[in-house]
Amino acid sequence: MSTDKLTTGAIVREVSDQEAADQKHAPVPVVAHHDVIDETVENPVFVTEDLSVSYGSSPAVLDVSLRIAEKEITAFIGPSGCGKSTIIRCFNRMNDLIPAARVEGMVRYHGLDLYGDDIDSVQVRKRIGMVFQKPNPFPKSIYDNIAFGPKVLGMSGSMDEIVEQALRRASLWDDVKDRLKDNAFGMSGGQQQRLCIARALATNPDVLLMDEPCSALDPISTGRIEDLMHELKETVSIVIVTHNMQQAARVSDRTAFFIVDMDSSEEARIGRLVEYGPTDRIFTNPHDRRTEEYVSGKFG
Amino acid sequence: MTTAPARSASEVLGKASSSHRLRDRSFVLLLAALTSVALIVLAVLLIDTGIDGIPQISISFLTNFPSAFPAKAGIQSAITGTLWLMGVVTFVIVPLGVASALYLEEYADGSRWWNRIIEVNIQNLAAVPSIVYGILGLAYIVRGPLSLGRTVLAGGLTLSLVVLPVVIITGREAIRAVPPSIREGALALGATRWQAIWRQILPASIPGIATGVILSISRAIGETAPLILVGAATFVAFNPSGLDSPFTALPLQIFSWISQPNDEFRLLAAAAIIVLLVILVVLNAVAIRLRNRYQQRW
Predict the structure, then answer these.
(1) pTM value?
(2) What is d(CA A175, CA A186) in angstroms, rounded to the nearest whole number?
(3) Nearest CB to A152; choose among B179, B182, B189
(4) A23-78, pLDDT tens digit by residue?
(5) Which CATH superfamily is domain A2-295 in?
């Protein structure tokens, strides 16, 4: 186990730089290169290379390299503190809001370096929507919640139509069409979360990032959101962080498994990517022992 | 099935300690007694003022101007002067207070020394005696650089300085009460920082900000010391005609009447105090109502 801890993070680097790997502490690879990156992904929407995020001086997640497929659902699973939320927040540069956060490595979005000098994080977020753990509707009417995004983006066209279309895509229209002017806080938790999804869809994003979107919801609301995700993946790429393995197995096409490691001094907790691949393989035939233990419920 | 014999409370729960209960009760009594000291003092003051003042309140008292004859004296110019002052104060503190609160909450990097100095200073300024602001107003607003003279504008600006720190502090609290998830939600939709603040955070914090503004105004309304220093007149037999007009105000009128040797003027002072108290109670009631009605429960 201890060798696993020491080597996993290093593997990606060493494989991509074979010579250095030969010279240095030449570890026994516990996972093959493709298990982490998944090169079977063609036309990736996101590619990360050695992506690390640290808060202040302590690294939160180290050396994540993966390719996220277009128009698919990709799930990030792993125990608390493994950095899955931190990574998803790199994809729309939400980490910019935390002054102490530092992002290293590369994130490419359709080939474009998201952290390049000339990239405006506001422009990034216009294309990449996000749904949060706890439903966070604005304290306004249902209509105004949806209309906010299109308004700030200056979208043209009839606002009524934009609102209706967004609510239909989130299969919320029939529930709320008679009370569009009511305050969103009067809705149930599940409806509020679908409203947040509709709000994100109203600006026609290319990607939808979902950070544990069902963790505050009951099973029925969760089911409706999962159905919704299946419909949405026709038109948007979805990355979902979940601590619910069954949910990952149900909804996702690909799964990335993260783990939290103690660093050598046992003080900092560092997240690492362990294994990444098609969901059915990750759940039925994981290559890494820790993935197997996690998906079979032995820890986490 | 047999039912178990009923058991006494002390058998089930253990023996109650009577000394504990006694100490508990005496502590509650002590707290109630201490609270009642404040309440009794307040009640005595109110009743005493009420007995003196209420018989004096009449339409003519509210509509007459001050006079050398107690029977003809009234507080119209004091009321209009106070309204003018509060108008100036509102006009100054709302934009300045909200802008400062937004800067400190949303933009200022708290780890920078200059922002920390601003913060500490605002906290301190809120506790500075108002007479110090009066001296400042006299030196810089009435005379000195601004040289506005003893006018409504000078008095209003001075009072604004007195309450501005409170407005900023309550404004920051109102803005901080908007959960970060609202900011994140707006930014995640591609809003700029300014759009998120202007269209989501500020509207959501308006009830809290308004409450702070009203409470600040109700503090400013009773301020006397700074107005005495900036030289508001105490005998003004006309309403202010504009920002550059001389003025008086309710607390000044009260102050002037109380210092008169004639007892009848003291009764008029009591009546004016009651009018001032009613205005204060109304303002505070509006503030409480605003807070209860519109404040968002997140």
Answers:
(1) 0.80
(2) 13
(3) B189
(4) 444 444 444 455 666 767 778 999 999 999 998 888 888 889 999 999 999 999 98
(5) P-loop containing nucleotide triphosphate hydrolases (3.40.50.300)
